[in-house]
Specification:
By secondary structure, the chain is of the alpha+beta class. It is built from 5 helices and 12 strands. The protein folds into 2 domains: 82 residues, no CATH class; 94 residues, no CATH class. A hairpin with a 2-residue loop joins strand 9 and strand 10.
C-alpha cells in the first residue's frame, strides 16, 4: 500500500478542501509551514458566514499506520499529525472593476477623500481613479474606515445621513455606473 501525506482545510469541523497531497512528509511539512506563515499576514478575516460563527483549521494528515499522530483520526480514518487554527481572508467587492479585492489593496490607497454610504465606502480624488468598496454591513464599513484612517494619509468625511445620501446618490450612480438598487442594496454576497 502506498502511504501519503495530505493538507486539508476544515470549516466548523467539516472538511472543506484538500490543499496538497504528496508521498514525502518533508515536502508536505514545508508547504504546511509556508501556509501558516502566510496566514499570519491576513489583516481582515472572516468570522461569520451566513450569520453563523465560523472556525477554520488546517490539518496535516496521513494514512501511514507507522506514523505517530496526535491521537485523533478523521472520518476517513486518516491520522492527524498537526492541527492549527487559521483565518480565511475577507474579500471586498469593488466598483468600477466589479471584482473582489483584498483589504491590503484598499488600505494602501493614499490621497483620497472617503466617506461611508450605508455599507459602502467611497474613495474619491480629483486626479485619481475613484473606488466604491462594498462591506457586509455598516459596522464593518465603519471598522474598515477607522483602520484606513489610522494607517494612511486620507481624509475621512464620516457617515452620510439620509439627507446627504439623497444629494450624493445620483453623483455616485453616474460615477460608478451602477443602478440605484445596487447602491441601496444592503450587501453583495
Amino acid at each position: 500500500m502506498k502511504y501519503f501525506y495530505k493538507i486539508i482545510k476544515i470549516e466548523n469541523s467539516v472538511e472543506k478542501t484538500t490543499i496538497a497531497l504528496n508521498k514525502k512528509y518533508v515536502i508536505i511539512k514545508n508547504k504546511y509551514d509556508k501556509i501558516l506563515k502566510e496566514n499570519k499576514n491576513i489583516e481582515f478575516y472572516k468570522t461569520y458566514k451566513n450569520g453563523k460563527a465560523i472556525k477554520h483549521q488546517l490539518l496535516l494528515i496521513t494514512n501511514n499506520p507507522y506514523t505517530k499522530g496526535l491521537g485523533y483520526t478523521t472520518s476517513n480514518g486518516y491520522k492527524v499529525l498537526e492541527i492549527k487554527n487559521i483565518y480565511e481572508e475577507r474579500l471586498f467587492y469593488s466598483y468600477p472593476e466589479k471584482a473582489y479585492v483584498r483589504y491590503n489593496e484598499v488600505s494602501s490607497l493614499e490621497g483620497y477623500v472617503f466617506y461611508i454610504f450605508l455599507n459602502k465606502i467611497i474613495f474619491e480624488a480629483e486626479d485619481k481613479k475613484n473606488y466604491l468598496i462594498v462591506c457586509t454591513n455598516k459596522r464593518e464599513a465603519s471598522f474598515f474606515a477607522q483602520n484606513i484612517l489610522l494607517s494612511k494619509k486620507n481624509i475621512y468625511l464620516g457617515i452620510l445621513n439620509k439627507r446627504m445620501r439623497s444629494l450624493y446618490n445620483e453623483n455616485i450612480i453616474k460615477k460608478f455606473d451602477i443602478k440605484y438598487e445596487t447602491l441601496y442594496k444592503p450587501y453583495i454576497l
